[in-house]
Design brief:
Length: 681
């Protein structure tokens, strides 16, 4: 490229970004236009994904659906899933580890901790790995991958347009909504899923662009595949009021199976991760295990839409319904738990159809004149199971409702889905998505990580000079002490330092005003012995919980019953903001490194951010044990562990539990002279 061509490109780029900056000043119009672009792109990506999936199914099995797999020779049922798992596992391991699994937790983590930033390669790797996994017979759904691909599309476009973090998070939601809408032909459900599960924010500035993207993607999908629903559902009607009890039983059953699904998935994942094998071989082993299962139950392969359709029309034998619940559970956990790429949306619908169909068959056998055919219960079971697995009951109801367009089913659907979600949450508090995030140390609420304080000890902010009085101190003196101290509470302790109780400012206010007689009262008379307290080894998230989310301004810290200090809410909030800043800085540095593959050494307000090899004396220690901040005056932002090939892997935010492995590099932040000293260790 000549210098003149480069200058022309620079001028065009400058002109484009000038127009883009001017357009950003019109908040609503700009986001509507960009959301429509995201929806259109995600809609076409969903179309391409479905066609690529059909191509691989035809390549491997000679046709689509479980009928083609059932008719395949025995050796193909073993070899093809193992081969698909091997290739998909290698692609994920080599190019983008975020493409592993069902995808939605990665999108939620990007929204909660990286402001919506996702690597451009992720949608591409996810598409290839998922079509290989599912097309080769792996038991997984296409909806989860489409959510991640669509969300990645929104993220990449937003980063290209240089939008702010708030808008970028919204565009990620636009892409996720567009993916669901295009796959299910359900624009309202797609939008509700994005705001309920991904973004966690129903405010209009976020919701309006998501609706636009969802509608645009649906128009694109219908233009290619038509307006036909995913499932052709027979018309059903309520037979008697007794059925509501049976639908409630469907919801209860879905809650139990849904929570079991979540537990079994991560138990299987733990078992596979403990194997001393390279990741591609682990994924191949998972594929081989699925192949063994296909020898006896070919109906559990792939997405399983044709088997769901058979259940809705009552074409499956009762015994097979029960058998397919267990078989599908095992097949999905083997596929995704071993590192394959695929979603849990379709498997949830599958499990719901089989569970609901089994309950419906039993009910119809006992009460043939008072119940609908089993297919009606299979349909309601799909919504109940989806709510139980995702803990997103609103989007689960709407997906089923939009697929049927039958208002008569809405009452039993609402009942069963609500019961299924409540029962599942009671048996296992995390959904399939949030369980994965919590295992990484993330606690996402309303689209934000609220677990930043989980690794900060109470000693980090504790004050060791609380206002104390003896139990026998007259209340008049207690009031005088409180008047001269900047405190929300006075602590009653004995001569050994044991905490007897707490007197709060609220209790003292009437005494200050002279409304109560003080002469006959002592401190112990007014002290609350049940006032919440935390042990010395507690973390700040435990402190915040005991404070009631801000109801109490301060709380005592005890060690074996003895008062050792107090923690004030303002100090906890200050530390939270500090940890949030540190997390954001770490993610920004990580993002820059992912994009450039450079090791940064930059100046930030007189401090440096540098990427250095971990000194030998720190190898094998956790970040907390290394205590780099105290020993060297530096903050560890990121850790770059070596991957299986011996090269440096992707940077990861440093947590106190992160182990510094041999060959790791540390991204540290601090004064230049201390960085130089650390470099020479």
């Amino acid at each position: 490229m000549t210098s003149r061509t480069r200058r022309r490109h620079h001028r065009l780029a400058a002109w484009f970004y000038w127009l883009n900056a001017r357009a950003k000043q019109t908040e609503s119009f700009y986001m509507v236009v960009v959301a429509a672009m995201v929806g259109a792109v995600a809609g076409w990506v969903a179309v391409a994904f479905r066609q690529a999936l059909a191509f691989f199914e035809d390549l491997f099995w000679g046709g689509s659906g479980t009928a083609a797999i059932a008719a395949a020779p025995l050796h193909l049922k073993l070899v093809v899933p193992a081969f698909g798992g091997l290739v998909a596992g290698y692609i994920i391991w080599r190019f983008a580890s975020e493409a592993k699994g069902h995808g939605v937790p990665e999108v939620m983590a990007a929204v909660a901790t990286r402001g919506g930033r996702m690597r451009p390669r992720v949608p591409i790797v996810k598409a290839i790995a998922s079509t290989l996994t599912i097309g080769s017979g792996g038991s997984a759904g296409s909806e989860g991958p489409i959510v991640q691909i669509g969300a990645g599309t929104g993220s990449v476009l937003g980063q290209f347009l240089r939008v702010g973090e708030r808008r970028l998070r919204t565009l990620v939601g636009c892409g996720a909504a567009a993916g669901i809408a295009a796959i299910f032909n359900a624009p309202v459900a797609g939008a509700l899923f994005a705001v309920e599960v991904i973004i966690g924010d129903f405010r209009v500035p976020q919701f309006s662009p998501i609706i636009i993207a969802s509608v645009t993607a649906t128009v694109v999908s219908r233009g290619v595949f038509g307006a036909e629903p995913v499932f052709h559902v027979p018309a059903y009607e309520a037979v008697s009021s007794v059925e509501l009890l049976i639908y409630a039983l469907v919801g209860l059953s879905a809650g139990v199976v849904g929570s079991t699904f979540t537990r079994l998935m991560y138990w299987t994942e733990d078992r596979f991760e403990s194997l001393p094998l390279p990741p591609p071989l682990v994924t191949a082993l998972g594929g081989l295990s699925v192949g063994l299962l296909l020898l006896v139950l070919p109906d559990v392969a792939g997405v399983g839409y044709d088997t769901i359709d058979a259940a809705l029309h009552g074409r499956l034998a009762p015994k097979l319904l029960f058998l397919l619940v267990g078989g599908k559970l095992l097949a999905v956990c083997l596929t995704i738990g071993s590192g394959g790429s695929g979603g849990i949306f379709a498997p949830s619908l599958y499990l719901g159809a089989m569970t609901g169909g089994a309950v419906g068959w039993a009910a119809h056998t006992l009460l043939p004149h008072a119940t609908a055919p089993p297919g009606a219960y299979a349909l309601v079971g799909m919504g109940a199971m989806l709510g139980a697995v995702t803990h997103g009951p609103v989007s689960a109801m709407l997906i089923i409702f939009e697929m049927t367009s039958d208002y008569l089913i809405i009452l039993p659907l609402m009942l069963a889905t609500t019961i299924g979600t409540v029962v599942s949450a009671a048996l296992h508090r995390n959904s399939m998505y949030t369980e994965k995030l919590e295992r990484r140390g993330l606690k996402v609420m309303h689209g934000h990580d609220v677990n930043l304080l989980g690794s900060v000890p109470v000693e980090a902010v504790m004050q060791r000079n609380p206002v104390i009085v003896r139990p026998e101190t007259p209340l008049a003196q207690v009031v005088q002490r409180a008047l001269h101290a900047d405190t929300e509470a006075v602590y009653v302790v004995d001569r050994e330092g044991r905490l007897h109780g707490v007197i709060t400012l609220r209790q003292l206010n009437p005494l200050k005003a002279g409304k109560l007689e003080l002469d006959a009262l002592v401190a112990e008379d007014l002290a609350d012995p049940h006032f919440p307290r935390v042990p010395l080894g507690a973390s700040l998230d435990e402190v915040l919980y005991e404070m009631g989310g801000g109801i109490r301004e301060e709380i005592p810290v005890v060690d074996d019953g003895r008062l050792v200090g107090v923690v004030k809410l303002q100090d906890v909030i200050r530390r939270y903001n500090r940890e949030l800043y540190r997390r954001n800085m770490a993610e920004q540095v990580a993002h820059a490194m992912w994009a450039s593959h450079d090791r940064p050494t930059e100046e930030l307000a007189g401090y440096q951010v540098a990427d250095l090899p971990a000194p030998g004396e720190l190898i094998g220690k956790t970040i907390a044990e290394a205590d780099v901040r105290r020993r060297y005056g530096l903050t560890v932002l990121l850790v770059r562990p070596p991957d299986e090939g011996g090269t440096l892997g992707e940077p990861r935010p440093a947590t106190p539990e992160t182990v510094i492995e041999p060959g790791s590099w540390l991204v540290v932040y601090g004064p230049p002279e201390r960085i130089e000293r650390f470099r020479l260790l």
